[in-house]
């Protein structure tokens, strides 16, 4: 789809025309799966949180809830948030996760996408007594924020989600990223001590020995395993209807620990109804590598709260 809305819709129409039974969807920047939903074609991977044909492996909105929980799990009780102006709805998810663990949001500081100086935003947070800071900006802005926070002279726990603090950004930050908390909804690709990541790497390289292990590759591997499990429970011709039914019936699918065992059990909050991977996990950056800090935590009770 080349990351464009038009390209995505061309791919969606092609899937409908060719009468495919299902779609494994990767990371795209502009997605409107209405056409696939109307056609009843199940979408596995990066899909929305509400459509009846959606089986999202990772939910960006739920991940913001995990960020709040993850920062609270470090022992912080006073949260500050620096974020892209106009994205308060995402920031409210961070607050919800953090305050569910007994902490308190003390300040939030919106910044423009083209802001050249983030020191006023940082001063607002530190002046309010924040001891940890959630960063929700585009990668370039996140780098600016991290620099300004490190220069504040305060001892702060700083965190963000893996989609923002991706491998390229962490590499460019170098030692500045040490101590940063990165929250994810599946094991990080650096977690090579975990058997599941080794399995992902082995399976990918069995197809292409030059495959680079990325977050996108991990999500695609999970999606493929789910589809494979669903196919084993179907008989006769595989259609969108039969595959959707099989995917909805998945219970306790073993994903080698990359995420906890999968259960396709809808949540009773319409905003997160199709979020089946409702887990977060913390990583701390050390020497450019992500080091896991603790086990997965379940945020389903928070997502159920309307």
Name the features.
signal, Rossmann fold, Peripla_BP_I, 3-stranded parallel sheet, ABC transporter substrate-binding protein, Leu-bd, 8-stranded mixed sheet, alpha/beta
In words, what does this structure look like?
Residues 7-255 form the Leucine-binding protein domain. This is ABC transporter substrate-binding protein. InterPro entries: Leu-bd (IPR028081), Peripla_BP_I (IPR028082). It holds the Pfam family Peripla_BP_6. This protein is α/β, with parallel strands linked by helices and 306 residues long. It has two domains: 5-59 and 215-278, Response regulator (Rossmann fold, 3-Layer(aba) Sandwich), CATH 3.40.50.2300; 62-184, Response regulator (Rossmann fold). Helix content is 38%, strand content 19%. Strands 4, 5, 6, 7, 8, 11, 12 and 13 form an eight-stranded mixed sheet that branches. A three-stranded parallel sheet has the order 1-2-3, covered by helices on one side. The two termini are 34 Å apart. The mean pLDDT is 93.
What would you call the shape?
globular
Which sequence of SSEs, written as H and E, runs from N to C? HEHEEHEHEHEHEHEHHHEEEEEH
Average pLDDT number = 93
Number of strands: 13
Low-confidence stretches: none
Tally of individual helices: 11
How many structurally independent domains?
2
